[in-house]
Amino acid sequence: MQRSPLEKASALSKLFFSWTRPILKKGYRQRLELSDIYQIPSADSADNLSEKLEREWDRELASKKNPKLINALRRCFFWKFMFYGILLYLGEVTKSVQPLLLGRIIASYDPDNKAERSIAIYLAIGLCLLFVMRTLLLHPAIFGLHHIGMQIRIAMFSLIYKKTLKLSSRVLDKISIGQLVSLLSNNLNKFDEGLALAHFVWIVPLQVALLMGLLWDLLQASAFCGLAFLIVLALFQAALGRMMMKYRDQRAGKINERLVITSEMIENIQSVKAYCWEEAMEKMIENLRQTELKLTRKAAYVRYFNSSAFFFSGFFVVFLSVLPYALTKTIVLRKIFTTISFCIVLRMAVTRQFPWAVQTWYDSLGAINKIQDFLQKQEYKALEYNLTTKEVVMENVTAFWEETSLLMMIMGELEPSEGKIKHSGRISFCSQFSWIMPGTIKENIIFGVSYDEYRYRSVVKACQLEEVAVSLVLLWLLREMPSQDKGNSTNRINGSYAVIFTNTSTYYVFYIYVGVADTLLALGLFRGLPLVHTLITVSKILHHKMLHSVLQAPMSTLNTLKAGGILNRFSKDIAILDDLLPLTIFDFIQLLLIVVGAVAVVSVLQPYIFLATVPVIAAFVILRAYFLHTSQQLKQLESEGRSPIFTHLVTSLKGLWTLRAFGRQPYFETLFHKALNLHTANWFLYLSTLRWFQMRMEIIFVIFFIAVTFISILTTGDGEGTVGIILTLAMNIMGTLQWAVNSSIDVDSLMRSVSRVFKFIDMPTEESKPPTKPFKPSKDTHLSKVMITENQHVREDDIWPSGGQMTVKDLTAKYTDGGNAILENISFSISPGQRVRSQYCLLA
């Protein structure tokens, strides 16, 4: 990896994220490789972050009877978290002040108030400066909060992994690999995704108080009618949120059940194929998926109603705020447009930001509690006594065991019901099950200790690996495969551990507006339901096809895939298709239509503005295309960097007894931290380039707003209504277009998950392989898929054979089509009546 330009970047470069330009240029011109990624800052390394959080967690465990993980997190990240929260608050305050200047600009065009016409330019400059200040405050704050969320995730990842290596065997028997993967992927991702929204829990109440004070000055008591509607809407959203949480909690259990079965299927895919259990496993998982999808649809519909409330609520807020005042008093245009601008900010705060913040805290605290429960589980205790001789002493031991249980008790993996077990000296351990770690054969033999040429060659010779070494297999990367048995060569490596180690306005207007409001309500609530329903159905079909493809794929294909990568498709990517993609696409389409409508209205009212719109749209399209060239590659590298984390976790769990017997936990923690740091480098660079793009987009929008403001002021006569509409819509475009851009990036990013799912669906299947000899399918409907060879003697002589003989000549077999032969030129014969036992060779 290259050294990061961030280390030598100036403060201005860091503020505008200009230090990311080299990687953006390179990604636009050519394909990015892992070597092009920048190194992470030392403060973001897994070693530093895990040590920091682990120290505070140990302090919490030692000082309190009821330790809280959130206290340890607070001591590690609180002050940085609050600093960026204050920056975010100051950026949000500028949004609340902007409508005041807008109202003064509109008032300057009142024919009865020509005295203020001369200061309209200065008011416009002040309004534009507020937008500039907002840009300079919000983007560093949001990036900083995302950065803190990333650091929390890294530290928690490491803490969970270290705890996994310390868990007792009794606890591990109750925890599946799928549950651990769900704990790491589904729960910890909440810190990355939602921490930037957490501060709105306290920002929104302060913002609402400020806005209501300003609205009171405009409309007096009528202002509270709109607020009352928003409060009722917020309570409605809260009820929907509780309903959604109920469905999500129920669904989480079903997801865990499905992932547990899927994980077991992937790990034992050879047995599934050997016993022809593909249809049974597919039916079992699909039944769980059906129950899960019922809850997914309910949760998605509730989330849709919650999201759609934002889009139709703006009209009602303005209507309920302005109409009571207009029916009792005379209202001027300045107050209408100022109220609209205030209500836009108020609507966003109450119906979007505050519910999102509450949801973020609910999810984050729930995840923290789950992780805390995991961190407090019983640990494995190694038996260490200072005995004078190398011996094992057992005193009054009472337990029910087999041979393996006795040995596990000596190692400390199991505890006796009574008595004591002591041992001294070094342990030589050979696992009952074949296990290797992903890496070269040489790395498996050395197993994290210093290289000794003599001992290394001794192990190669003892494990009969000389012939294999001649074909350069020592440099062959051993992939973590979904099967237990990987051939005699890799099984012999498993034994090498034991060899090398021992250690406004009449009343009829009211009825018109009520009719319009009812229509908007119906359209706003139900227009997007078919889209959400269709996308969830698509997710159901894709999961079914992917599961079928994996079960029907030949072992030569499955052996080239990592179990963690396959499980990641069924967990993270399917979760994205179920939860994020439907509403993200709905939001993007809705926001795009709002922006197009606003731009069209502004251009019709002031055609000169259309001249400013064309270059802005062109700049937007060019900049987005330029950014996507790099962001797609960075997202792909980030996804590829995530799989080794889960693969390493699965590998460590399978060989946990071996690791603990030889005390290699620190070595595997180092390997896990390397995988974490690799993923962090990709993720941090993606966050930085994304913020570079979003800041440039907002700068373009600020320039567009400045152009619109001065064009409308300098070219409009005495039409205060025209100026009000143009500036109000331009301010609305500012916020909405930024949101639409982010949604477009999110849609593009989420579609990468769809692409990865299709790669699995398009895998070759066993059925697609042409048979080597002519077979005739059975006419029996139950056996129509089975290929049967007919015996010609039975048809001609009407004699059923009395015996069966099998002869194999020159058999050659490979795990992968382009790999080395594991069986080569094997010939044997099995006579009729002869009993033959096929047994896997665990160790040679």
UniProtKB/TrEMBL annotation:
Domain ABC transporter: 365-621
MF terms (GO), sorted A to Z: ABC-type transporter activity; ATP binding; ATP hydrolysis activity; intracellularly ATP-gated chloride channel activity
Membrane topology, as annotated: Multi-pass membrane protein
Source species: Suricata suricatta
Assigned protein family: Belongs to the ABC transporter superfamily. ABCC family. CFTR transporter (TC 3.A.1.202) subfamily.
Keyword entries, A-Z: ATP-binding, Cell membrane, Chloride, Chloride channel, Endoplasmic reticulum, Endosome, Glycoprotein, Ion channel, Ion transport, Isomerase, Lipoprotein, Membrane, Nucleotide-binding, Nucleus, Palmitate, Phosphoprotein, Repeat, Transmembrane, Transmembrane helix, Transport, Ubl conjugation
Enzyme class (EC, first level): isomerase
Annotated ABC transmembrane type-1 domain residues: 86-323, 509-752
Protein name: Cystic fibrosis transmembrane conductance regulator
